[in-house]
Design brief:
about 140 residues; mainly beta; five-stranded antiparallel β-sheet; four-stranded antiparallel β-sheet; about 0% helix; about 45% strand; globular; disordered N terminus
């Protein structure tokens, strides 16, 4: 089991707001419990931001959205999600960490958000992406 301490204050995204995922989760925030007897734990490095996307509902509901448009640009990609349909479980921003998106931080978005764009560029560390998020 992996647990994390509070990293950002909960807030809702207002229309026209630029959002930011934390760039990394510090290794001291990672707590591993229920390890087999005789084993000790050590977390070598932070978990770096790998992905970001809107979701239907909180992260544990796995409400990943399949419909988006993508556009290639020099040095990266832009993914745009139309969010102008009802989301019964709410609209959420998911920020994923680790090369295989092992950990997700989520925060609820304002129901009035209608579109979000995610501009991806390679980060400095292996598996890390710099992601600029704009919603309106």
């Amino acid at each position: 089991m992996v647990a994390f301490t509070a990293l950002t204050a909960p807030a809702s995204a207002a229309p026209g707001l630029v959002l930011e995922c934390p760039q990394f989760i510090e290794q001291k925030s990672v707590q591993i419990s229920n390890v087999p007897p005789g084993w000790t734990t050590f977390v070598r490095a932070p978990l770096y931001l790998h992905g970001a996307a809107p979701m239907s509902g909180p992260p544990e509901e796995l409400g990943e959205l399949a419909e988006f448009s993508q556009k290639r640009e020099k040095g990266g990609w832009i993914y745009t999600y139309q969010l102008d349909v009802p989301f019964p479980a709410g609209k959420w921003l998911a920020c994923t960490y680790g090369e295989s998106d092992q950990v997700t931080l989520g925060r609820k978005l304002n129901d009035n958000v209608r579109v979000c764009s995610f501009r991806y560029r390679k980060g400095r560390h292996v598996g890390e992406n710099d992601i600029a998020i704009a919603c309106k």
